[in-house]
Amino acid sequence: MFSGEYRRKCVSADTAVKAVKSGDWIEFGWAASMPKLLDEALARRRDELTDVKLRGAVLTAPLAILESDPEARHFLWNSWHYSGLERQYGQKGQAYYIPIKYSQVPRYIRENLRTDVAMIQVAPMDRHGYFNFGVTISHFAAAAEKAQTVIVEVNEDMPQVQGGYDHVVHISQVDYIVEGGHLGLPVLPTPPVSDIDRQIAGQILPDIEDGACVQLGIGGMPNALGKMIAQSDLRDLGVHSEMLVDAFADMVEAGRVNGRRKQIDRGRVTFSFAAGSQRLYDFMKDNPVLAAYPVDYVNHPCVASRNERVVSINSALEVDLAGQVCSETLGPNMVSGSGGQLDFVEAAYLSKNGKSFICLPAAYRDKAGQTRSRIKPLMTYGAVITDTRASVQYIVTEYGKVNLKGLASWQRAEALIGIAHPDFRDELIQEAEKMGIWRNSQKR
């Protein structure tokens, strides 16, 4: 039925990128969904273009457009969320971060941002004329809706993923189709799990009840907790999580997750994007247990909190004695991004019997080999606040967990110092005294 339209719109990557003009804004890709052939074709047009600005996130491999233009005279990357590679591009002036509340990104695109071209990697068209977004749903429907020109790059290896809505784009909305053949998907290595990760995960596991609805962030500690859950005797767990990682496949296949007690998307694993091993991508292919949705559904606190007993687990870089959380910068230097952390901190607490956990090792070694505390009197100069002190519930280190909800400033200081690395507790008490948030009766 759509074969004629398909043939008319099917062009080479070099032809498709001719739609790009100097000064354009391009919505480009996210994590495991990067349009490889379009990237290479656009790089070949470098000398014809200036001031082309691209938005995307979580690069897993170098981009040809940025490698071809080290002085950023032609192409500029604007990232919704930094990976290590984007940090490197940022240090060279080729990339800049876009502060976000992830649940609001589709609205940013529809209401606030200019989008001239959308370039999206998709699965092959089905017989009804739809291209499935595969492993990344996120904000792609909003980008396709807003863009003046929509280009899809068909990856034969992109799995068709079952969804709720906005997980597909119809051929009638597409201007150009580029056939990529078998492009594969980038494998995101599972973060190594340290002994401290296991200790922190062990602090949280007793707080997860049968029937809980789990959200896991990215990193070694959430991965450790996922593996512990898979090996536990927990039953009837649900999943409502912006990111799908290998640990969720482990949990489903171990029989821990069935979603029977969820209040929305009952029986389904709800997510907005995925990145991980080939095993994860194989698990996702046409799997009826999955429900892929745009991020303004998955991450919206009012939606996610409709499930009861939501348990949200995310990581941080540092916490101050007020209970503020920084999860995205080291001082003024961008490390990752806010992502959906605040969305799920809010969602978990709004959920009936829900719990939100922010996890971090109590200390770290700096480049000079000196041990530093991650719990600080004040945030490092230039650090960005990801979660405000009033929004934070549990803070967890390998030395324990504390619930900050409702605590006065002196109580917060005492609780956080109690889970700091022992080598820094006296120093933290002295600083808390100077700040007027330590009561004399509590001196140790």
TrEMBL record:
PANTHER family, per database record: ACETYL-COA HYDROLASE, ACETYL-COA HYDROLASE-RELATED
Name listed for the protein in its UniProt record: Probable butyrate:acetyl-CoA coenzyme A-transferase
Assigned EC number: 2.8.3.-
UniProt keyword annotation of Lipid metabolism present: yes
Keyword Transcription regulation: no
HAMAP family reported for this sequence: But_CoA_trans
Catalysed reactions, semicolon-separated: butanoate + acetyl-CoA = butanoyl-CoA + acetate
Occurrences of domain Acetyl-CoA hydrolase/transferase C-terminal (ranges): 276-432
Gene Ontology BP, a term: butyrate metabolic process
Biological pathway: Lipid metabolism; butanoate metabolism
Superkingdom per UniProt: Bacteria
Family named by the database record: Belongs to the acetyl-CoA hydrolase/transferase family.
Coiled coil spans: none
Taxonomic source organism: Acididesulfobacillus acetoxydans
Keywords, alphabetical: Cytoplasm, Fatty acid metabolism, Hydrolase, Lipid metabolism, Transferase
Annotated residues for binding of CoA: G217, I218, G219, G220, M221, L317, G340
Molecular function (Gene Ontology), one example: acetate CoA-transferase activity
Localization per record: Cytoplasm
A Pfam family this chain is assigned to: AcetylCoA_hydro
GO cellular component: cytoplasm
General function of this protein: Coenzyme A-transferase that converts butyrate to butyryl-CoA.
Ranges of residues in domain Acetyl-CoA hydrolase/transferase N-terminal: 5-187
Catalytic site positions: E242
Annotated InterPro entries: AcetylCoA_hyd_C (IPR026888), AcetylCoA_hyd_C_sf (IPR038460), ActCoA_hydro (IPR046433), ActCoA_hydro_N (IPR003702), Butryl-CoA_acetate_CoA_Tfrase (IPR023990), NagB/RpiA_transferase-like (IPR037171)
